[in-house]
Amino acid sequence: MDTQTITEKCREDDVKLVRLLYVANDGVVHGHTVTRSQLADALESGIALPELVQSFNALGHRSKDAGFDAVGEVRLVPDRSTFRVLDHEENVAAVCCSMREIGDETPWTADPRSALAELVSEFEADDMVPSLALETEFLFYSSGDEDERVGHRGLYTTDSIRDFHEVIIDAIDALEAQGIEVKKHVAEYAAGKHELVTDHREGLEAVDDYVFLRETIPSVAASHDIETTFLPYPFDATTNGCHVHLSLWGDTNWFAPTDADEPLSPTGRHFVGGILDHMRGLLALTSPTVNSYARLQPQAGAAAYSCWGVGNREAAVRVPEVASDQRETATRIEFRPADNTANPYLAVLGILAAGRDGIRNETEPGPSLDADPANCDDELLEERGVRRLPTTLGEALDALADDDVLRDALGDRLFESYMTVKRKEWELFTDSAATWQREMFRQTF
Ligand code: GLU
Ligand code: MG
User: Fold this and answer.
1) For residue 160, is it within any domain?
2) pLDDT for 326-377, tens place per residue?
3) Is residue 418, in this structure, part of any structural domain at all?
4) Which residues span the domain enclosing 63?
5) Which of 336, 339, 340, 341, when mutated, tests ligand 1's pocket best, judged by the most ligand atoms within 8 Å of its CB?
6) What domain count does the chain have?
7) For a tag on the chain, would you pick the N or C end, based on fewer CB atoms within 10 A?
8) Alpha-helix residue ranges (DSSP H) falling in 127-265
9) Please, are residues 349 and 112 in contact by the beta-carbon 8 Å criterion?
């Protein structure tokens, strides 16, 4: 869409404010808002953005040693193809942005969206276009003096579907008005826990759409006086994931097996091998908050072991079972230990980089595990090389620090700033344990 078409659309739809969206190292969706009078300029040249935005963590603390200080600006430049009017709000439109150097079109080396765009274009150059669907789960609850659950409990019960019927209808309308096709609504096992399954999209578009979805659902729910959280483990026995479904396409699906007895082609298998190889560090990108590790527990419906399996929902990589006449179109992998606290550009970047490393090295993932790993004996797990996933953010960050493939994919500047910001989050959490142990034990001993 060109600038003139967008400004005309804004006039016709009485848009007064346009949000320029981006996601920083903290995994939070941010926006700078321009008025209609500034829109044409912003669409053409972008707006100034302090480099500092990449030094804040999700708790709003700035890491002084993340590599940015008070001096230093880049440009936040809208990708006009993502522009859309947000009909569910009043007089508002939004557009996803990349970060560029001030003087030219060079992507800023600490921009997550540009880093993913570059990797996707490398895949495209190899005739492997990533097709992606980010399957997000979230929880509706009520906030007051205390946060409380709302709705009925029970897996796929029609009670829980009916509880939120109006909200879900409004959310689907709002997403479809933006061109995001919703295929399914799932009310899951915990009260208030829901999932909207959206159609797959190519490369960056899939991630941009997900950013819009993250913006849309809480806003629609708020208009019904309902709070939304995407936190991975917001209440006991409640897990919100963001599974990433992925296949690679040239003329045909690179992951589809030609051998009817196999679930994946050799390329697909090697891609999975690469993911398992880099899993420990990858987790620091896909499950990047302290709370993420409360979700990644055995038999909690998420994933706790580094293994792959056909139709296996306790494996980190599931290959969904597909009917034999749909293997060409529907064969894909599902990466399960990802959640909505991730910067989605970095999560997808990490998965693609790990998978590509597997393709390049023809990494074999071993036979698929067709059982719940928590029910397998240690001998079998050892024989298959199945390991427990990191159990803390600190462990995953240590693994990421040692992963050169993921470092290369992010580039040094983005990698270093991300590590610093996330380490700070981890330190704040572990420091809080010092207070806890003093309080708990002072009177005991
Ligand atoms: N809620 C589970 C998770 O956190 C996923 C359940 C499912 O959709 O398979 O990953
Ligand atoms: Mg689900």
Assistant:
1) yes
2) 999 999 999 999 999 999 999 999 999 999 999 999 999 999 999 999 999 9
3) no
4) 3-110
5) 336
6) 2
7) C
8) 158-163, 165-177, 203-222
9) yes
Ligand 1 centroid to residue 92 C-alpha, Å: 33
Element (H, E) at 394: helix 393-401
Last residue of a domain, one of 110, 134, 169: 110
Q: 193 and 266: one domain?
A: yes
pLDDT, tens digit, for every residue of 113-163?
A: 999 999 999 999 999 999 999 999 999 999 988 899 888 888 888 988 898
Distant-in-sequence, close-in-space partners of 319: CB < 8 Å, separation ≥ 6: 263, 264, 268, 272, 308, 309, 310, 311, 331, 332, 333, 334, 368
Q: Which residues contact 375 (CB under 8 A, 6 or more apart)?
A: none
DSSP symbol at 429: H
Any atom of ligand 1 within 6 Å of the Cβ of 137: yes
Burial class (CB in 10 A: 0-12, 13-18, 19+), 14: exposed
> 384-389 contacts: CB < 8 A, separation 24 or more?
384/307, 386/305, 386/306, 386/307, 387/305, 387/306, 388/304, 388/305, 388/306, 389/279, 389/280, 389/283, 389/296, 389/303, 389/304, 389/305, 389/306, 389/316, 389/337
High-pLDDT (> 90) share of the chain, %: 91
Is-contact 25 17, C-beta < 8 A?
Answer: no
> What is the pTM (predicted TM-score) of this model?
0.97
Cβ proximity of 77 and 100 under 8 Å: yes
Q: Report the pLDDT averaged over residues 78-83.
A: 98
- 108 CA distance to ligand 2 centroid (A)? 35
Q: How far is the CA of 188 from the centre of ligand 2 (A)?
A: 7
Q: Which atom from ligand 1 is nearest to the alpha carbon of 186?
A: 8
Cα–Cα distance measured from residue 234 to residue 147, given in angstroms and rounded to the nearest whole number: 10
- The mean pLDDT of the chain is 96
